Automatic annotation (TrEMBL):
InterPro entries: TUNICAMYCIN_INDUCED_1 (IPR053283). It comes from Cardamine amara subsp. amara. The keyword Signal applies. Residues 1-25 form the signal peptide. PANTHER family: PROTEIN TUNICAMYCIN INDUCED 1, TUNICAMYCIN INDUCED PROTEIN. This is Protein TUNICAMYCIN INDUCED 1. Keywords: Signal.
Amino acid sequence: MGRRVLVSVGALFLILFTIVPSSTALFSSPEANPPSPKAISDLKETIVKRLGFQSNEVKISGFDVRDALVGHALSYEFDLEIDNKVHPFKLLEDVNRWEYVDLPIFQVEQPIGSMDENGLVPMRNKKKSSDVIPVLAPFQLAGPMELWIQDADNMRLSLPYDVDAGVLKKVILADGAVVTVKGARSVSLRHPIDLPLPLNQSSNEFASGILSLAQQLRRTSSDQETPLLSLRIVGPSSLASTSQSPDNKLKLKRLAPGLVELSSMSKGKSSLSAIDGATTTTVLTPREFTTMWPITSINGSNHNLLGLEKLLTSVLGPKAQEKGSFKVLKANVAAQTFMKIGFGVEKKLKEADLNSLNFPEWRTKPETMKWHFEVLAKVDGEKVIPENVMQVDPIPLEDTIAQNVISGNVTMSKLPIIQPTPSPFTL
């Protein structure tokens, strides 16, 4: 009987040992080869090519989506044409806050057995991607101009009370109409525009050059039958009158399905220019000194606006004070999602590589070289586009040299004998 019990216990133990894998295999397998979605794999290949390495000569480690940080910031893109030469500019704001976010492109199927010692899948506490969709801060737009609405089937229109205008594709703002745009993901220029020079044509020497250009453009647009400025707005949630008073509300006029015109019921006309003989001088009111058309929510002392004016002045050079014009081919401001992730590169060194590194003779020559990088990438739909790749040094290296190497490996017998100065107190 005792022998039968031992055989039964041994068989049960063998079955359990065969079915249940060991804890070492559960832990080491996912850590050695963490799952990588296609977007991250494409990002890895793009970065390796940008760094000048061949995929078959280096070993890439990292790119673990569990350690990826996600943040939001504004990106500015401008294309200026000056003297038949195009100058592209791309500016990125600093990300104020980095978080762990569960983006759809990070989601991969966990392999069987990808658990830690406690039997749990090793994942961080992440936010849902639906809660962190980046949008622009609310801003005000003033007419005359036209707005082309994209990806906004459920947009709300408030003038100041909610109005059911159906699905809007195009909104014309008449001169004097001002609306507040909320929930927009990006704003871009639909058609190129010409801007006059010199940069500052205002009679006031303290007026900003950008504000002077804006008022020149507004005056030109007011003299035309159709709006000169045309913007594309992606994904706005609402267009609302800036004034909540019923006496100063906007009037809506339906022109076609999906096309409306907004005009102000109490439009106050003000003279923007004074003509003296053949000379035209731009006259700015006190409000126009501090706001910029068509984005009236931007203050004239805004640091981004002042930085843009310095950049424009440096690009134009002496031409900024000469009579003429330049063209804005492209202008786009968007709220973008950025990702920051670290990775390592390991490469086997050849003799030519060792000679170029200039290692000292006493130092042991390494067989491989390791680099650590950090990539800042833009998340665009299902793609991850690298913006900046920076090399980092997580652990500073310090060389330790033995004392005999410093002294040239000289024995004590070859050192000179130095007699100390005799002292009368010495016995």
